[in-house]
Amino acid sequence: MAIRVRLGQDEVQVEPGGSAQLLATVRNEGDAPDQVALEIEGVDAEWCAIPIPSFPLAPGEEVQERILIRPPRNTESRAGTYPILVRARSLENGGSGVAQASITIRPYSMLTLEIAPKRGIASPLRKRVPYELTLANYGNTEQTVQLHASDPEDEVVFELERERVPLAPGETQSVLVYAQPRRMPTLANPALFSFTATARSVEDPLRSTSVQAQLERRGLVSPLVLGFLAVLGLLLALWAYTRPLPVEIEEFVAQPAQFTAGETTTLSWIVRNADTVLIEPGLGEFDPNKTRSVQVQPQTTTTYRLIARNRYGEQMREVVVIVQNAPEPPAPVITRFYAEPTQIKRGEAVLLRWEVQNATELILTPPGGQKLDPAMPGFEHRPSRTTEYELIARNAVGKSVSKKVKVEVIDPSQAQILSFTAQAETITAGESVALRWEIVNAIRAEIDNGVGRIDPKQGEITVSPTATTTYTLTAYDAEGRPAQAKVTITVEPRTEPPGETP
């Protein structure tokens, strides 16, 4: 087999949300140069990342590549051991070499507990109050949860529908717990008791969560109610000797009574002997002793009705508000939409600027449909990759127009070519010249025009170009990002001595 793969370890352990590294050594045992693609089989592709998935290999050459293992921290990343295959596949002849390892996902626990209602009421007519406990397992292992409820004053008796609940990863279950006061006096003021419900993992007792709720105990009759009933009796006796005056509506007007759509008008009223004032449609009730006007903004001509009421009757009056159609606003215009600058390095910010007319709202994407004030001079953003921004301008009636601008994000390489020079930049045909270089932060380097792989730190090599040639040195950092430098060798034709015939 022309391609062989060796792994630095047989097992990789990683916790969801974290990362681990697996080193793969790939060797070309054939007699021809090859282009090799590195692939992972056996697990979700999102769990693994290969910084340099494809690379050239000279005959007998051996390259080490990193494989990053990064399972997400969610319930889909179940704890356990997953066998994987690391395959190095030749892009030239289809042959491949494989190596086997395993990924062990470490377990983690995360339990949540909610209770509803937060406050229940117990009385002699309803002593036993149900609460619903909602349990959720957001970890990556199955959990058996032990439930417990208690109050610090020991005034409440609890009864759980189930004391142990098995939960699969990502599963949610509800359990009823009943709370009942130990003592239930018939004549007593309301008393409030706080209690705590706790859910604890049986497998990992250090993992627990709790919620608090309250139980209010009420007597059948309280001293406060008795006092209220006595006062109410006195008031009823007083009311029996009095009689409310009839309701009168002296005025109900709109100012102005005619206006353009989008404007407001004020409804005002003067009433006598009314307990409440109801305005329809849709404005609700008002206290006539506190409120005597209200602002409205109808979109069409509307008839408003005022109904004044007291205990013995009601009276109604209407007023018509005439709404005229507003002229259609002008269409929005984006005169300019541009970025400063249009090319940045990763991590740098770009300032998006615009000039708009007749717009009441701006929407910028990305980031995520950001709504902006048209009066803003611009918006700063830090894109992580080359991005095309779209600006949408809308007017008051929803008409819109859009423009786009593209910002190129350059991801600079960590590799630096300190020098790349030639012993002589001009030679005569048939002569040779030495190329010298010095590089830092590179894991691989190569020179084109038949030179191939070179030492990624420093060195020199002799070349014999037959014609003027530009040599390009490319150095790659650990993430596979390239840095380049060029040098040109000018080849002049050999001059024959006078008198000689070529």
In which range does the helix fraction lie? under 10%
Give the class-level CATH name of the largest domain. Answer: Mainly Beta
- What do we call the CATH homologous superfamily of the largest domain? Immunoglobulins
Strand order of the largest sheet: 2-9-8-4-6
Tell me the count of domains: 5
Which strand-content bin applies to the residues? over 45%
Q: Structural class of the secondary structure composition?
A: mainly beta
Number of strands: 42
N→C terminal distance = 52 Å
User: The biggest beta sheet, please?
Assistant: 5 strands, mixed
The unreliable regions are none
Average pLDDT, to the nearest integer? 88
What would CATH call the architecture of the largest domain?
Answer: Sandwich
The rough form would be described as: flat
| CATH structural fold name of the largest domain | Immunoglobulin-like
Radius of gyration: 41 Å
Tally of helical segments: 1
Description of the molecule:
By secondary structure, this protein is mostly beta strands. It folds into five domains: 3-105, Sandwich (Immunoglobulin-like); 111-217, Immunoglobulin-like (Sandwich); 248-324, Sandwich (Immunoglobulin-like); 333-410, Immunoglobulins (Immunoglobulin-like), CATH 2.60.40; 416-492, Immunoglobulin-like (Sandwich), CATH 2.60.40. It has one helix and 42 strands. A hairpin with a 5-residue loop joins strand 8 and strand 9. It is flat and about 140 Å long.
